[in-house]
Amino acid sequence: MMYTFWIILTGCLVGLTCGIAGSLLVLRKMSMIADAISHTVLLGIVGAFFVSHSLNGVPMLIGASVVGLLTAYLVEVLNKSGVQSDAAIGVVFTSLFALGVILISLIGDQVHLDTNHALMGEIAFVPWDTMMIKGQSYGPQAVWMLGFALIANVLLITLFYKQIKMSTFDPQFATLVGVPLTFIHYLLMTMVSFSTVASFNSVGAILVVAMLIVPGATAYLLSERFLHVILLSGVIGVIAALLGYGFSILLNVSIAGSMATMTGLLFLLAFLFNPKNGLIIKKLSTHY
């Protein structure tokens, strides 16, 4: 029973944490930077292993967060130098991720980490990787990391809510009233990096990307109010995790893959049946 509980809790925390952080990227039309960061943190994780010889705890968090911020910085530098935004993301994303894959091959058999693990994660093994203090188990490390990332995200959004909202919808006015746009930009990149790092080792890059982008995009179909989109994104992420776990047990398939699939299904339902702009609702209203 506890084994199942920890897996479901981890999935829900991933959906909630990534959903909230990713919704801000969706609103700022920066969704694909989430894809880039969710892959390039692999380089930071491997780099942290070379320094600390461990994939757990603070070294991994620091290494992956540094590379996540480096990704955002390099994309911005290339973009300001005249490279198109999507091309800049593609160049940085593929280069740093490929470097991480190369470094994995150098690690060899020293640690259980490979490209398949990086893409799909090992959420079924989360209950066994516990936080031990003086011989006492205090639950899975993934749950603690995700809980920390969620609390940090909520605190940062609460503290800088007005600045984030203003810089998202009217950056020119925000500049005039003294909102530090660069600081807010890297604050959001830090939130995304923390969310990605906390999720990556457990669920892999594919589910991280899905939870960072799809719940926010789905919420934006249902509401255009800033706070509502943020809250809805977290709720949709949790629902997708719950449905995905049930689907994976029913068909005996990948848990992370099922959760990612459910985000797409929820988006499709919102796209078709959204009361305001749903495709089918529009056609029905036009017909009648």
TrEMBL record:
Predominant subcellular localization, coarse grouping: membrane
Q: Looking at the keywords, is Membrane present?
A: yes
Task: Provide one Gene Ontology cellular component.
Answer: ATP-binding cassette (ABC) transporter complex
Provide one Gene Ontology biological process annotation. Answer: transmembrane transport
Gene3D superfamilies in the record, alphabetically? ABC transporter involved in vitamin B12 uptake, BtuC (1.10.3470.10)
Q: Any idea which UniProt keywords this protein has?
A: Cell membrane, Membrane, Transmembrane, Transmembrane helix, Transport
Task: Read off the InterPro entries from this record.
Answer: ABC_BtuC-like, ABC_TroCD
Q: How does it sit in the membrane?
A: Multi-pass membrane protein
UniProt-annotated location(s) = Cell membrane
> Which Pfam families does UniProt cross-reference here?
ABC-3
Q: What SUPFAM superfamilies does the record tag this protein with? A: ABC transporter involved in vitamin B12 uptake, BtuC (SSF81345)
**Transmembrane residue ranges:** 6-26, 33-51, 57-75, 87-107, 142-161, 173-194, 200-222, 229-247, 253-273
Q: Which family does it belong to?
A: Belongs to the ABC-3 integral membrane protein family.
Q: What is this protein called?
A: Manganese/zinc/iron transport system permease protein
Origin species = Paraliobacillus ryukyuensis
